Amino acid sequence: MIIHINVFKGPEAAPYIRPLSEMRVKAFAEFPYLYEGNVEDDFAYAHLYASDPQGMIVVAFEGDQIVGVRSGCPVPAHTIVMDESRCQMLEDHGIQAKAYYYCGEIIVDPAFQRKGIATQLMTRFIEEVKEMGFPGMIAITSIKPDDHPLRPHDYFDSGLFLKKFGFEKSPITFTAEWPTRQGDGTVKTQENELAFWVRKLD
């Protein structure tokens, strides 16, 4: 298996927005996000990564097949997640959020997981952010209780992956609303708790 990692920025990332949305909807339906969405609605979110010249999607290919993605953009460009109030939360704690780079999702096709592809995507992503001169990065993870009824017994906390790359979990949390699958299989639009993770680069 030969994996090629390519970086697409700004308008060059546009052809990969729909594949990103398709992978997002599939991956985020699982624990811990339990997001019950659709590609068309998600597209409005994902297109932000191609709307800024410094937005990017790092893509892992095996041949012509997309097997993994890592997305990001400058914090001010991601107006859906990093709105004024959330930036202010971070700035109140001494983090100059608007100067940082927002780390979106990192997703690897289940058939290609545990082969080091996520590490390759993250390594290249960080290299690109450093080259663009950003002083730091901000990532977000979902918070769910350990005893959540839909928590898989082999669940791997993405926070452990972020720690591997030098991110530190912030004490700042916030909530966001989305259609969420419940323990009984029903879907309810509800507030979900999320945590900020920060890595300084300077």
What can you see in these coordinates?
It is a single chain. The model has no long low-confidence stretch (mean pLDDT 95). The chain has 5 helices and 7 strands. The chain has one domain (4-200): 3-Layer(aba) Sandwich (Aminopeptidase), CATH 3.40.630. The relative contact order is 0.17. The termini are far apart. The chain has a 7-stranded mixed beta sheet with strand order 1-2-3-4-5-7-6, with helices on both faces. Helices cover 25% and strands 33% of the residues. Helix 4 (117-131) links the parallel strand 4 (101-108) and strand 5. The protein has helices at residues 17-28, 39-46, 84-91, 117-131, 158-164, and strands at 4-9, 56-62, 65-74, 101-108, 136-142, 168-181, 187-200. It is of the alpha+beta class and 202 residues long.
